[in-house]
Design a protein that fits this description.
Helix content: under 10%
Number of strands: 50
Mean pLDDT: 92
Shape: globular
Structural class: mainly beta
Number of helices: 4
Oligomer: single chain
Strand content: 25-35%
Largest sheet: 6 strands, mixed
Length: 726
C-alpha cells in the first residue's frame, strides 16, 4: 500500500518505463551491459502440459493441468460451441476455435495466447458480446476484466477492461468508466455480462444483490435471498455484521428465472435461492448435498467460498440444470415449477468428488479442485460446457447426458483441455540440479511440486508432490535428495530425485511446527540448505531455526524479530521471515557462521516490518543478531530476497531486494550490513521479488520482468524481449 496513491497505477508507470528502456535498447543494444550478459528472448520450459497425479499410482489424478484459470467464455457467434476464451489468474487470455465437438480428442484442441503484449495478464472475467445479425466470430467484441477477485494471497489487481472488436487480435484498454471520473486501476472484475436482449447494455457484478435497468443506476433489491436485512447489510461496505461476503447470480437464458448463492466472511453457506419474479421473492433450494458431499478427506460445503464460488443455470428443455462450483462441482436438475432437485437424495449431486472416491481421489471425473468459472452453449441438442478451476480448463461435450452421476464407481464425462493449453502455472520457487541443466523442480500454487529431467528438450513435466507447493531445494552434495514443502511449516524430503512421489515425501516430514517449538510461519515458510553443510537446514518463522536436514535437533538461532522475545510464533506476525541467506566462514560445528534474514512488511501504512537482520557470529547464539536495515527501507516493505556474492569468502558482500514503490529496490553491502550502496540506478520502480548473481552480473526478478546489471556500475537492462515485442 502506498498512501494516497494507487499501486496499480504505479506498476503501470513502471511498465511504461520498461517500454521506454526497450526503445533505448533498439538504438543502443549494448546500453552499458557487460558483453556476456544475455539479453535475448525467453524460451518456455513449461510445464506445458503438467501431469497432475503426484502419487505415481493414479491415486489423485486430475488429468493434465496448466494452472489457475479464473474465467471461461464461449463466443455466442459460433453456434457450435467450439470458440472459447480462457483466462488465467496471471496467465493472460487464451483462445481456441476447436475446443468443443470439432475435437473429439482433447489432444487435438489448439490454443493461442492473446494478451501477452498487454500491460497486465491478471484476468478476473471474460465476456463476448452477442451479435444480432450475421454473427461472425472474427468480428466478436470481447471484454476482459483485468484483476482477479478470488481473494487469494497471490490475486493481482488489474488496470481496467481490455476490449477487442476483432475476436481478440487487437486490444484497447478501457481504464475508466463512461463518465471518466471512476478509474478502474487497482480493481478486479468478478463478472462481466452482456444483455442478450439488448447487446449494447453491459453490466459488471460486485458484492451485493442489486438491480439496474441501464447498468448505471442501481438499487438494492427490496427482498433479499435469505432475508439479508438492511439493518445487518446497509449499503455501506464497512458493515462487519452483514452475513454476506461473496455472492453469485445465474439466470436462465430466455426465462424469468434467476438463482443466487452467497457466503459470509467466515465462508458459511448462505444458501442457494431461486426467483421467478425478478427478485421480488425467493425460494430456497436444498443444497445439503453440497455441505454433506461425501468426501471423507474434506472439500465439502463452502469452506473456501471467499475463493471459489460459481453458479450457472443451463436450460434443459423446460427443466433447469443448476451447476454450483466450490471446491467440488455440483449439479441439481429442477423440473418445471419445482424447487427440489430431481435426484434420489432431492439435493445436489457431487459430480467430481475431488477428495473422495477412495482410494483414487476424484476418479469419478478427474477434475481439479476449486471452481472459478462455468460457461455453456446448447448446440444440436447437447449442452457443451466449459469449466475453469485451479487446474485450468475442462469441458463436457454434453452436460445433459454426460454429467449425471454423484456416485463413486461411476464416471462423468469430463475432458481436460490443458494438454495443449500454454502454461499458467504459478511458481512459488524452483530448484535446479547442480550439474544437470535438464533437471528442475519447483513449488506451485495448488498444483503441487512439478519436476522435469528433460527441460532442454521437452516442456512436459510431472508432479512429484501434491497440494500447494512452497519452497524447494536440491542437496548439491547429493542431488537425488530433494526437499519440498506445502503450507506453513511442512518441509519434506525424498532421496529418489525425479523418481520421487507424494507418498515418499509424506513418509519423510523432516520439519513441522512441532520440530520448531510449536512455531507457525508464513503461508509458504522459507528455508534453505546451509551452504557450508547441506546436511543442515535453516528455517524462518518469526525467528530463525537450524537443525539437521533429517529433521533432528532443531534449535532457535534468534529470538522473535517481531517482539525480541522467545515466545512461540503464531504466523500472524508482521516480521515473519521472508528471505534467508547464509555463508562466510564455518562456525565451531562446521556450519555457516554468517546468516542474513529479511522480514515481511506491509509498507508505509504500517511501517514496522521489512527489516534486514544479520548474525555475524552464530557461535554466540540468539543474542548476536543486529538490525542492519539502516535507511534502505523507510517504507517498511517486504525484504523479498538476499543473496551472497560467492566471490567474497567472508560472506560480508550481499545484495538485498525490496518490494513496494517509491523506494530503491536493490542494495549492496560489503560489510555485512554495516553500510549499504544503492544499486537501483535506472531500474523501473516496481517490486523486486528475486535476485541472482552470476559472473559479475546481478539479475533482478520484478513485477514487470527480469532485469540485469553489472555489479560494478549499475545500469539495468531488461533480459528477454527485444524492442516492440511483449
Amino acid at each position: 500500500m502506498v498512501p494516497g496513491e494507487n499501486a496499480a497505477d504505479l506498476r503501470f508507470q513502471a511498465h511504461r518505463s520498461r517500454m521506454q528502456m526497450r526503445t533505448v535498447r533498439r538504438f543502443s543494444p549494448a546500453a552499458g551491459l557487460l558483453a556476456s550478459t544475455p539479453v535475448g528472448v525467453w524460451t518456455s520450459l513449461g510445464p506445458s502440459p503438467l501431469a497432475s497425479d503426484a502419487t505415481g499410482i493414479g491415486a489423485q489424478d486430475y488429468g493434465w493441468v496448466s494452472g489457475r484459470a479464473t474465467a471461461v467464455a464461449i463466443d455466442p457467434a459460433d453456434s457450435t460451441g467450439n470458440t472459447v476464451y480462457a483466462g488465467g489468474a496471471y496467465g493472460g487470455v487464451w483462445k481456441s476455435t476447436n475446443a468443443g465437438p470439432l475435437s473429439a480428442s482433447p489432444a487435438s484442441v489448439t490454443w493461442r495466447a492473446l494478451i501477452d503484449d498487454q500491460p497486465t495478464l491478471a484476468v478476473g472475467s471474460i465476456a463476448v458480446q452477442p451479435q444480432a445479425f450475421n454473427p461472425d466470430p472474427a468480428r466478436s467484441v470481447v471484454l476482459v476484466g483485468t484483476g482477479e477477485t478470488n481473494s487469494s494471497g497471490d490475486s493481482y489487481y488489474g488496470l481496467g477492461i481490455l476490449r477487442s472488436i476483432d475476436g481478440g487480435n487487437n486490444w484497447t484498454l478501457i481504464s475508466r468508466d463512461a463518465s471518466g471520473t471512476r478509474p478502474f486501476a487497482g480493481l478486479g472484475f468478478s463478472r462481466i455480462a452482456f444483455s442478450s436482449s439488448n447487446p449494447d447494455l453491459v453490466v459488471a457484478g460486485w458484492h451485493g444483490f442489486y438491480s439496474s435497468a441501464d447498468g448505471i443506476n442501481w438499487s438494492r433489491l427490496n427482498n433479499q435471498p435469505g432475508g439479508l436485512s438492511t439493518f445487518l447489510c446497509p449499503a455501506s461496505l464497512t458493515s462487519l455484521a452483514c452475513p454476506f461476503y461473496r455472492g453469485e447470480i445465474a439466470t436462465v437464458p430466455g426465462r424469468n428465472e434467476m438463482y443466487a448463492w452467497y457466503v459470509d466472511n467466515s465462508d458459511e453457506d448462505g444458501g442457494i435461492w431461486k426467483s421467478v419474479d425478478g427478485g421480488n421473492s425467493w425460494q430456497a433450494i436444498d443444497d445439503s448435498g453440497i455441505s454433506d458431499c461425501g468426501d471423507l478427506l474434506g472439500g465439502c460445503g463452502t469452506q473456501q467460498g471467499f475463493y471459489d464460488l460459481e453458479l450457472a443455470a443451463v436450460p434443459n428443455g423446460a427443466a433447469t440444470d443448476l451447476y454450483a462450483g466450490a471446491v467440488n462441482l455440483y449439479k441439481c436438475t429442477l423440473l418445471p415449477g419445482s424447487n427440489t432437485c430431481n435426484s434420489a437424495s432431492n439435493t445436489f449431486l457431487n459430480l467430481t468428488h475431488v477428495y473422495g472416491c477412495l482410494p483414487s481421489l476424484g476418479s469419478i471425473a478427474h477434475v481439479h479442485p476449486d471452481q472459478h468459472g462455468i460457461d455453456f452453449a446448447i448446440a444440436n441438442g447437447k449442452a457443451i460446457m466449459y469449466f475453469a478451476n485451479d487446474g485450468g480448463i475442462y469441458r463436457a461435450l454434453d452436460g445433459f447426458t454426460g454429467l449425471s452421476s454423484g456416485s463413486c464407481g461411476t464416471g462423468n464425462q469430463f475432458d481436460s483441455l490443458n494438454q495443449t493449453l500454454g502454461s499458467m502455472t504459478q511458481f512459488v520457487s524452483f530448484s535446479q540440479h547442480p550439474t544437470d541443466g535438464n533437471t528442475l523442480f519447483g513449488g506451485t500454487q495448488d498444483n503441487g511440486s512439478p519436476a522435469t529431467s528433460s527441460s532442454q528438450s521437452s516442456r512436459s513435466w510431472l508432479s512429484i508432490n501434491s497440494g500447494d507447493g512452497g519452497y524447494t531445494a536440491i542437496d548439491p552434495n547429493n542431488p537425488t535428495v530433494w526437499f519440498t514443502a506445502n503450507t506453513n511449516v511442512s518441509i519434506q524430503r525424498c532421496a529418489l530425485g525425479i523418481g520421487c512421489h507424494s507418498g515418499d515425501f509424506g513418509d519423510d516430514l523432516v520439519v513441522s511446527s512441532f520440530s520448531v517449538g510449536g512455531d507457525s510461519g508464513a503461508f509458504y515458510t522459507p528455508y534453505i540448505l546451509d551452504p557450508q553443510n547441506s546436511g543442515e537446514l535453516l528455517v524462518g518463522t518469526c525467528r530463525v531455526w537450524r537443525g539437521s536436514a533429517n529433521g533432528a535437533g532443531f534449535s532457535p538461532l534468534s529470538n522473535s524479530f517481531e517482539t525480541g522475545g522467545d515466545g512461540i510464533c503464531t504466523g500472524g506476525e508482521m516480521n515473519l521471515v521472508r528471505s534467508l541467506a547464509a555463508g562466510g566462514p564455518k562456525d565451531t560445528p562446521g556450519f555457516s557462521n554468517l546468516i542474513y534474514a529479511g522480514t515481511d512488511g506491509l509498507g508505509p501504512l504500517s511501517p514496522t516490518g521489512g527489516h534486514v537482520w544479520v548474525n555475524a557470529d552464530t557461535d554466540v547464539g540468539a543474542g548476536d543478531w543486529f538490525d542492519r536495515t539502516g535507511n534502505i527501507n523507510p517504507g517498511g516493505y517486504p525484504v523479498s530476497a538476499i543473496v551472497l556474492d560467492a566471490g567474497d569468502q567472508s560472506g560480508k558482500t550481499a545484495y538485498v531486494a525490496i518490494m513496494g514503490f517509491h523506494v530503491s529496490h536493490v542494495w549492496k553491502t560489503t560489510n555485512a550490513g554495516a553500510s549499504w550502496t544503492n544499486l537501483n540506478a535506472n531500474l523501473p520502480d516496481a517490486p523486486v521479488n528475486a535476485l541472482l548473481i552470476d559472473a559479475g552480473v546481478l539479475y533482478a526478478g520484478t513485477d514487470i520482468g527480469v532485469f540485469a546489471s553489472p555489479v560494478v556500475t549499475p545500469n539495468w537492462m531488461e533480459v528477454g524481449p527485444t524492442a516492440g515485442s511483449a
